């Protein structure tokens, strides 16, 4: 495999690793937030270090308010 093949292989691996890390942060924040109050969820959303963490907390917040956000699977 030539230089470009190796380069693209490394780039693909790095992209996959970043995507997996992002997915893990989302899942961890979502799973750990089941017993949090609304205020704690809002605080965590404000102070999250990544968009993935923030999205996990936001999903939990939306699930806690079906009257406002409806029954959503996403």
Structure explained in plain terms:
The chain is mainly α. 77% of the residues lie in helices and 0% in strands. The chain contains 4 helices and no strands. Helix 1 packs parallel to helix 3 (51-63) and helix 2 (38-47) packs antiparallel against helix 3 (51-63).
Q: What labels would you give this structure?
A:
elongated; mainly alpha; 74 residues
Sheet with most strands: none
Number of DSSP helical runs: 4
Uncertain stretches: none
Content-based structural category: mainly alpha
- Give the helix level as a range of percent: over 70%
Rough outline: elongated
Beta strand %? under 5%
H and E string: HHHH
Average residue-wise pLDDT: 91
Spatial separation of the terminal alpha carbons: 41 Å
The Rg value, from CA coordinates, equals: 17 Å
Count of beta strands: 0
Topology at a glance:
Blueprint: H1 3-32, H2 38-47, H3 51-63, H4 66-69
In short:
This protein has 74 residues and is mainly α. It has helices at residues 3-32, 38-47, 51-63, 66-69. Helices cover 77% and strands 0% of the residues.
């Amino acid at each position: 495999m030539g230089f470009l093949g190796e380069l693209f292989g490394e780039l693909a691996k790095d992209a996959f690793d970043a995507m997996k890390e992002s997915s893990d942060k989302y899942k961890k924040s979502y799973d750990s937030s089941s017993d949090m109050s609304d205020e704690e969820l809002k605080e965590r959303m404000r102070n999250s270090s990544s968009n993935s963490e923030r999205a996990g907390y936001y999903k939990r917040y939306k699930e806690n308010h079906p009257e406002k956000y409806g029954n959503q699977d996403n």
